[in-house]
Design the sequence.
């Protein structure tokens, strides 16, 4: 397999040398862009966490889930319920409760889904995610139905109540602080995911992806490993959903509907699912692509579809894969 | 009692529509091993084309003109299918199935907006057909004749498909290609052409489903996305790639759904998805599928 993940990978020094300048740019970013752009980028980072989690299944375990909207939506709805029924404003409590809930549900769904692979796995994840969608859609007296539930940023507190958003300029403050909060969580998630995929467990997942029979010969408990990967993947995506709610201010059943799962797949493939950084780049780029497509034309779905067609037919390795191949070719010549 | 009869008729009517969609989905999977996420949108396209044709050319026309125009949707969708297969799907047969699924998802996005562009955002109906056919008495209630016509069309389509697949030379070729594409190709069959025909036939079924539903329900944006999931439930229960499975699955889904709307409306859809998940767990190949 000619994949970046299968190689030994770049040295630790090179990674740190690349990561530090990127981190500095990300830290300084809100100083140079306006509130709207900051928010847009925050959305991108949140989707990146979701895609990162999704790719643990697609890129590293070789399972294509078409139901990841379930975990994203579950995280989002758990935060919204905490606001509506308990009046809680602390994002840390959202994360705690939401992660517990998405963890439990993805453990339950995963336990069922990993009994199958390939297309049946995809359909099973899709069917189960739609169960949640219909529940959110039909139990309108609990979930608000298609009107959704509001999560106002004005009641939100960060860092256990240390940071509140009241008074003048509250919105600008929220955009800035929330960006840094999401950036921090994003960095933690990225490091965590890096550790996971480079651990013996992560290597075992890749072995299962590449050759299930051989992996079984080696004594890897395949189903249990897939299950754990599913659980981790769902939890990452759920975390993204939790972070998404206060920023979006509203949660509707749309994020549980299966086309949103398709968007998560889209992001990951756009960046390139055979690489570690692919989903991150893909999510950020997809977010801009979608926002500008929606802003510039009523037919934005058409545009996204056309991009996806080009991607699948001409650039199957995604943005990162294409660039790294170009880079390799230039280096060989030079 | 009267209500029960009407509800049973409604269930069968609905099962016919679902069968038309699901049979096409199943046929395409059976022959080409592609799960077509755009199948629901092709069904919606059929509905739009038929409603548009009737609304544009035949306002106030006699009934037989309307009935002649109705299948236009199915034919148009089959033509679209015959274009899609060589253009988008053929380059991907050797690639992992993730890409095949993705290209059909892209197709779904494109088709949804193409319909929005071509037919606008307003719902289109062909209610004239249902009106001019009138109603008949069922027990003490009135029931639209058109719904009974659809049931007849559904049964005819099932018989027709069965006859094509099990009683014609083309059916033998289809089944041979489905069982072993390489061997069929080695025996001199033009597999590429078989794929075009199979995909177009599957699309025709979806388009027919849309064409016959549109006098009873308006064509609206988003109807395809919804229909696809129900068709999925049908083929998962019945078995992907099985014609009998699509028939039985459609009946199960529509009866459960009608009962659900009557007795437990909140979880009516959730129950269907749970049934599908349960079937996948206990018998992954579905009730009639082969491994």
Sequence:
């Amino acid at each position: 397999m000619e994949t970046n993940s299968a190689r030994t990978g770049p040295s630790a020094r090179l990674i740190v040398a690349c990561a530090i300048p990127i981190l500095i740019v990300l830290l300084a970013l809100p100083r140079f862009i306006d509130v709207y752009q900051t928010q847009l980028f925050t959305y991108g980072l949140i989707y990146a966490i979701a895609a990162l989690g999704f790719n643990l299944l697609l890129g590293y375990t070789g399972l294509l889930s078409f139901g990841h909207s379930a975990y994203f939506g579950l995280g989002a709805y758990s935060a919204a319920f905490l606001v509506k029924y308990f009046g809680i404003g602390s994002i840390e409590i959202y994360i705690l409760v939401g992660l517990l809930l998405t963890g439990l549900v993805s453990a339950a769904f995963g336990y069922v889904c990993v009994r199958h692979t390939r297309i049946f796995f995809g359909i099973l994840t899709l069917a189960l995610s739609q169960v949640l969608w219909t529940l959110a859609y039909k139990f309108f007296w609990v979930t608000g139905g298609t009107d959704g539930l509001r999560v106002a940023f004005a009641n939100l507190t960060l860092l256990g109540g240390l940071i509140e958003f009241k008074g003048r300029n509250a919105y600008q403050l929220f955009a800035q602080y929330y960006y840094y909060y999401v950036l921090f969580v994003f960095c933690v998630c990225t490091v965590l995911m890096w550790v996971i995929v480079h651990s013996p467990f992560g290597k075992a997942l890749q072995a299962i992806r590449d050759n299930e029979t051989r992996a079984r010969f080696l004594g890897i408990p395949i189903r249990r490993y897939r299950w754990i990967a599913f659980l981790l993947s769902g939890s990452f995506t759920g975390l993204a959903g939790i972070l998404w709610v206060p920023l979006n201010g509203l949660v509707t059943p749309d994020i549980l509907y299966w086309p949103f799962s398709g968007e998560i797949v889209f992001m990951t493939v756009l960046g390139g699912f055979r690489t570690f950084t692919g989903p991150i780049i893909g999510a950020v780029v997809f977010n801009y692509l979608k926002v500008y497509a929606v802003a510039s034309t009523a037919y934005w779905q058409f545009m996204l579809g056309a991009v996806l067609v080009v991607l699948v037919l001409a650039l199957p390795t995604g943005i990162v894969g294409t660039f790294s191949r170009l880079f390799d070719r230039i280096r060989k010549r030079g | 009692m009267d209500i029960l009869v009407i509800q049973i008729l409604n269930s069968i009517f609905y099962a016919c529509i679902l069968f038309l969609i699901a049979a096409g989905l199943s046929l395409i999977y059976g022959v080409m091993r592609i799960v077509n996420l755009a199948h629901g949108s092709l069904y919606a396209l059929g509905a739009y084309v038929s409603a548009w044709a009737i609304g544009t050319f035949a306002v106030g026309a006699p009934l037989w003109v309307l009935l002649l125009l109705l299948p236009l949707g199915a034919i148009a969708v089959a033509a679209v299918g015959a274009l899609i297969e060589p253009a988008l799907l053929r380059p991907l047969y050797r690639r992992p199935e993730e890409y095949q699924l993705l290209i059909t998802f892209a197709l779904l996005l494109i088709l949804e907006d193409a319909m929005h562009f071509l037919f606008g955002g307003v719902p289109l109906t062909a209610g004239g057909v249902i009106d001019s056919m009138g109603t008949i008495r069922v027990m003490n209630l009135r029931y639209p004749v058109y719904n009974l016509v659809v049931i007849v069309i559904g049964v005819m389509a099932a018989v027709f498909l069965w006859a094509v697949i099990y009683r014609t030379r083309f059916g033998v070729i289809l089944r041979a290609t489905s069982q072993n594409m390489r061997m069929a190709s080695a025996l001199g069959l033009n597999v590429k052409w078989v794929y075009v025909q199979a995909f177009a036939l599957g699309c025709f079924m979806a388009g027919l489903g849309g064409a016959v539903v549109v006098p009873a329900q308006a064509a609206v944006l988003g109807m395809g996305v919804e229909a696809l999931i129900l068709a999925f439930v049908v083929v998962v229960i019945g078995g992907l790639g099985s014609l009998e499975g699509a028939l039985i699955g459609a009946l199960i889904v529509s009866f459960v759904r009608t009962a659900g709307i009557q007795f437990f409306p909140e979880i009516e859809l959730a129950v269907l998805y749970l049934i599908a998940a349960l079937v996948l767990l206990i018998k992954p190949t579905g009730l009639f599928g082969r491994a």
In short: The longest strand of chain B covers residues 135-138. The interface with chain A takes residues 35, 37, 88, 91-92, 95, 97-99, 101-103, 105-110, 112-114, 116-117, 225, 229, 232-233, 236, 240, 265-270, 273-274, 276-277, 280-281, 284 of chain B (CB under 8 Å). Chain B has a mean pLDDT of 86. The beta strands of chain B are 135-138, 141-144.
